[in-house]
User: Which sequence fits this backbone?
């Protein structure tokens, strides 16, 4: 994805910097606007990925805690069956 973004930026810059033929080159202001938009979208995508990663991490942590509790309960049940307490 980063390669595609870089290629799009390179194309935009080359078109903006190209010779000014009638209607063939982007005005410098428009090229700047486009690059600003690309940068903005890149930041938004980064922030969204970070948010999703945090949510996934929290969910995995909760699931791990749940599994640990279940494992402790199973181990206790096995110990109880393996070592029954003597009756009084």
Assistant:
């Amino acid at each position: 994805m980063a390669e595609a973004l870089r290629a799009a930026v390179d194309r935009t810059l080359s078109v903006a910097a190209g010779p000014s033929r009638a209607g063939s080159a982007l005005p410098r202001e428009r090229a700047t606007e486009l690059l600003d938009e690309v940068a903005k979208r890149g930041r938004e995508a980064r922030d969204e990925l970070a948010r999703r990663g945090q949510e996934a991490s929290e969910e995995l942590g909760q699931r791990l805690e749940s599994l640990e509790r279940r494992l402790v309960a199973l181990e206790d049940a096995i110990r109880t069956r393996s070592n029954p307490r003597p009756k009084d």
Observations:
- The chain has a mean pLDDT of 84.
- Residues 76 and 82 are 10 Å apart (CA to CA).
- The helical segments are 2-17, 28-82.
- The two ends are 71 Å apart (CA to CA).
